[in-house]
Specification:
This protein has 427 residues and is mostly helical. It has helices spanning 27-49, 58-65, 69-97, 99-116, 123-136, 138-151, 157-186, 188-209, 223-232, 236-264, 272-277, 281-288, 292-299, 301-318, 324-352, 357-377, 380-409, and strands spanning 11-12, 15-16. Strand 1 and strand 2 (15-16) form a beta hairpin.
């Protein structure tokens, strides 16, 4: 009896290979790439989800803790000051320890103070937890930028960075909006529980979806970035850009922190949920900002910086009027102008830094967030004296100083480049 013929062809799913259903060869890589991009979006989202969350809660915190404007404004400035202190060292640590481990450890660490803020019984305890939130944030956003630049092919960096920037904008908006919405119904402590829970979910997804670095090479010299920073501090063009970054975030944080006090009072009397919704105006700027790069390519960083300052100043002037729609329009112009300035300034920093651009960018981030920290607290003295008009005049003065710095010290160079999606706007 003849033996049955045994095919030598490999089988797939029980079928001979030639009869097996054909699977799209690129389906797995495409799915993997989508998950990797999703992890990058979540990295940006969770970093900025809690950073400015108390801006929508300031009038509520002022009432609950029976505190003055300066005291509650420290819940904003504490986190931004911590970012400024930690940012230069986040890149140095990641150069030695690796990108993915530091991103995941920082995201896990960020969950703890966010959740613990809900347990605060005093304003001082809340400020401490907010400071710890800021310390963990640079380990995510500074290192994610380095991770993207290393792990994506040259033609894919722009797409990946655009996804990251989208995550930062959505995180910044959702943090303010959700904190106000939740606080209006369940109190501000519940808002921190929600934000902490979302951060934990983001960490879990990033742990699952963010692949290990393939191209990372540990730095051999710890001191090299520090030497580069010392050189940057002797560069007049960079110092002018750093001062511009300080003024830019000062204007944004100062405007959006103290306008909430004005809109919480008569005749507006907006509650926490409405104040959280106020930050929808950020999305207008986020839509317009990506087109700034082409304008920088044509006109240069200095001209676009001045355009952004003029736009933002016009917005601040509109907020001095009484109709609420005009106030909202003014805030939209203020945010849009600041985002344009941020794109121009970050592009200028990379164009004049020469070598060691990462350390130059780290110092810029420090000055930028120091400006935000000062902008959250310093105007409180003027608020107690003259209310919103006095704060608005201070912001306009700072913007005038920024314009003067750009006019006197910024030098247009042939290497100036536009703010492509690879130039992250972090707010």
């Amino acid at each position: 009896m003849p033996l049955p013929e045994v095919s030598s062809r490999p089988k797939v799913g029980g079928f001979p290979a030639k009869h097996a259903p054909r699977l799209p060869a690129a389906s797995a890589p495409r799915a993997s790439e989508r998950l990797r991009l999703a992890a990058v979006v979540l990295a940006g989202f969770c970093t900025f989800l809690g950073l400015y969350a108390t801006q929508a809660l300031l009038p509520l915190l002022r009432r609950d803790f029976h505190a003055d404007v300066l005291a509650v404004s420290l819940t904003v400035s504490a986190s931004t000051l911590a970012v400024a202190l930690a940012a230069p060292f986040a890149g140095v640590l990641s150069d030695r320890l690796g990108r993915r481990p530091l991103i995941l450890c920082s995201a896990a660490g960020l969950c703890v103070p966010t959740l613990m803020a809900a347990s605060s019984r005093t304003l001082h305890a809340l400020i401490l937890w907010r400071f710890l939130q800021g310390l963990f944030a640079p380990g995510i956003f500074v290192v994610t930028i380095a991770y993207i630049s290393e792990e994506w092919e040259r033609l894919g960096v722009g797409t990946a960075m655009a996804c990251y920037v989208t995550g930062t904008v959505l995180g910044g908006f959702c943090g303010r909006f959700l904190s106000g919405l939740v606080a209006a119904h369940a109190g501000w402590r519940a808002a921190f529980l929600v934000l902490g829970g979302l951060t934990l979910l983001c960490w879990a997804a990033m742990w699952r979806w963010l692949p290990p670095s393939r191209r990372f090479r540990p730095a051999a010299d710890w001191a090299a970035p520090l030497r580069a920073m010392a050189g940057h501090l002797r560069n007049r063009a960079l110092l002018a850009a750093y001062a511009g970054g300080f003024c830019v975030l000062f204007s944004l944080v100062g405007s959006f922190t103290y306008i909430t006090f004005r809109l919480a009072e008569a005749p507006y009397r907006l509650g926490p949920s409405a104040l959280g919704l106020l930050f929808t105006v950020y999305l207008v700027g986020a839509v317009i900002t990506p087109f700034t790069g082409r304008l920088i390519d044509r006109r240069g960083c200095r001209a676009v910086q001045m355009l952004g300052l003029a736009t933002s100043a016009a917005g601040v002037l509109l907020t001095l009027l009484h109709p609420l729609p005009l106030v909202l329009l003014g805030l939209s112009l203020c945010a849009t102008g600041v985002f344009i300035c941020q794109s121009a300034t970050s592009s200028y920093v990379t164009s004049v830094a020469g070598s060691s651009r990462s350390s130059a960018a780290g110092l810029y981030v420090t000055c930028y967030y120091v400006g935000g920290s000062v902008g959250a607290s310093a105007p409180s003295f003027l608020w107690s004296w003259g209310g919103w008009p006095a704060v608005a005049m201070l912001v306009l003065g700072v913007q005038s100083l920024t314009l003067l710095l750009a006019a006197l010290f910024w030098q247009e160079r042939g290497s100036d480049r536009g703010a492509s999606p690879g130039d992250p706007v972090v707010v």
